[in-house]
Specification:
Length: 242
């Protein structure tokens, strides 16, 4: 019971050992800590002032034969350039962003110990992504799992068929939320709202303020619950003593 009280008091004091506004997740190619990377390649360059990716990772993110994950974008024919640019940007966002702390969760996977979950994407980014891919083809809704990896790269699993993008993902929301196992959630927030994360931006990274908004909001909810938890703990301790 004393250990529970100590934990609650630590939480109530806002004790945090990790700066969730400036951190890198524990994953396959991420740096241990974010920092400047002046040579980030093409679409990853907006993160050059503070990045969780290296220059080499940023270059590989643009390569069809990338060693990063051996992932084959062309599993149902050649992916259009319009569509592929969004997956490159998505990779840059995932690999390079230092402001995903509020959405990082532990995961038991061989290739990473942490993942992102329910990152709120801006309406424009999700809808433009879907619009630019709507004439492409795929055979799966969840691209994280279920592939045939027997050849060393992902191929459509036996029994599946390639279908038009809009048949597999009828809406921008279905695509953004399903394709990477709920790494993202679709929002109706626009880029000017300060309440959604931007895949595409220029200049100063706007996502730090968004992460701060969600982190503060979460801490406020946690703080509001602490008095009740402390009361219950103290009451239980009093009963045990008496």
């Amino acid at each position: 019971m004393w250990s529970v009280l100590a934990l609650l008091l630590a939480l109530s004091g806002g004790a945090m050992s990790l700066d969730k506004l400036n951190m890198c997740m524990d994953a396959k190619h991420h740096k241990t800590e974010p920092g400047p990377e002046g040579q980030l390649y093409q679409q990853c360059s907006p993160w050059r002032d503070n990045a969780c990716c290296t220059a080499n990772t940023s270059a590989e993110a643009h390569d069809d034969a990338s060693y990063l994950y051996n992932f084959n974008w062309n599993h149902c024919g050649i992916m259009s350039k319009e569509c592929k640019k969004h997956f490159i940007q998505d990779t840059c966002f995932y690999e390079c962003s230092p402001h995903l702390g509020p959405w990082i969760q532990p995961v038991d996977q061989s290739w990473r110990k942490e993942r992102i979950l329910d990152v709120p994407l801006c309406k424009e980014d999700c809808e433009t992504w879907w619009e630019d891919c709507k004439n492409d083809f795929t055979c799966k809704t969840n691209w994280h799992k279920g592939w045939d990896w027997s050849s060393g790269i992902n191929k459509c699993p036996e029994g599946s068929k390639c279908s038009k993008w809009t048949d597999v993902f009828p809406t921008p929301k279905s695509m953004c939320e399903e394709i990477w196992s709920n790494s993202y959630i679709y929002t109706t927030y626009t880029k000017t709202s300060g309440k959604c994360m931007q895949l595409w931006f220029t200049g100063t990274n706007p996502n730090k303020k968004v992460a701060e908004y969600y982190l503060n909001n979460g801490q406020q909810q946690q703080s509001s619950a602490l008095p009740t938890l402390l009361f219950l703990a103290v009451t239980s301790l009093s009963v045990m003593i008496h």
